[in-house]
Amino acid sequence: MKAIIIGAGIGGMSAAVALKQKGIECEIFEAVKEMKPVGAAISIWSNGVKCMNHLGMGKIMDDLGGPMRKMAYNEGLSGATMTQFSLAPLVEEVGERPCPVARADLQAQMIDWWGRDKVNFGKRLESVSQDKEGVTATFTDGSTASADFMIAADGAHSIAREYVLGEKVERRYAGYVNWNGLVEVDDAIAPADQWTMFVADGKRVSVMPIADNRFYFFFDVPLPLGLEQDRSTVKADLKGYFDGWAQPVQTLIDAINPDTTNRIEIHDVEPFRPLVKGKVALLGDAGHSTTPDIGQGGCAAMEDSVVLGQCFAETQDIEMALAQYNDARVERVKDLVLKARVRCDVTHGFNPEVTQAWYDELREETGTGIMQGLSKTILGGPLG
């Protein structure tokens, strides 16, 4: 049995590994000639780490994961601590630590684990067709590939999604812009073992430790869609948006490299069904593009892959296995997309009274409430 995997990102590589574990041959096709991840880093929460362990790639997480042992919210303008707590109770409850990682390093190591020479780069999907014999992918260079079935992990702008649904799905602007990148750890910004967030006025600044003594940082600012951007003014723009904020935020802005700082207008896709059409299945962002507000985008793709493998362990009937995959994932991923959307709206001040109430709650938070929410999301995955 053979599968075509469209996309060599986190979802595509995870899917290929999961299917290989079940004895299924996979051929991977990636649109770009060289992988250039969108976003500097990614939060892989404990459910994602469990998936990587299950797929035999746990060492990658050990090597790349930062020492995130604590979590804190600070008031953005004064810098005063609103809440600070250890994540040890969460790790004990769910059975695995979270691993913030550099996205480029994660994707590179996953591809190397598989075999870089076994990935077909520069193959952008143009169309999909299927018949009783299997599935054929046609690429924009005119070439084709055929196999028994297809796993489409071709991202938020998925071509395969339109084929599966029979219509084009428009992405929804979430209402804010995110700047992100990497800087060296600096205690003047935040403790080296803590996920630290500064919040005020519907804006957010975050630093999260990753491997090699680096912070993954991001800034969130609610803004209209389509504003002009100029990399040369990144620091000045951020200084303007965060004028009057606490000194650690100013120190962070001073430390960033505009040439390696990403600016992303955040979108998601309205949850939909089905994720499968016959012998073609959507996986990762192709099936459930979400905002990053609960850190579950990459984790959900890894979960998809684990479930895909489990379904093929139960049956070698392709359409039955993919139907089972659809049934197992559609409600879970809908829940994650909508949870992220709710968190997005609260965090970014789209209802100021609700956001102020959240700030007030944070000042009374011991960590128990936040960790209960994280635990529920993590334990809702396929590996518990």
Automatic annotation (TrEMBL):
The keyword Flavoprotein applies. This is FAD-dependent urate hydroxylase. Its cofactor is FAD. Belongs to the FAD-dependent urate hydroxylase family. Keywords: FAD, Flavoprotein, Monooxygenase, Oxidoreductase, Purine metabolism. It catalyses: urate + NADH + O2 + H(+) = 5-hydroxyisourate + NAD(+) + H2O. Its EC number is 1.14.13.113. Pathway: Purine metabolism; urate degradation. SUPFAM superfamilies: FAD/NAD(P)-binding domain (SSF51905). The keyword Hydrolase does not apply. Residues 2-337 form the FAD-binding domain. It is an enzyme of class 1 (oxidoreductase).
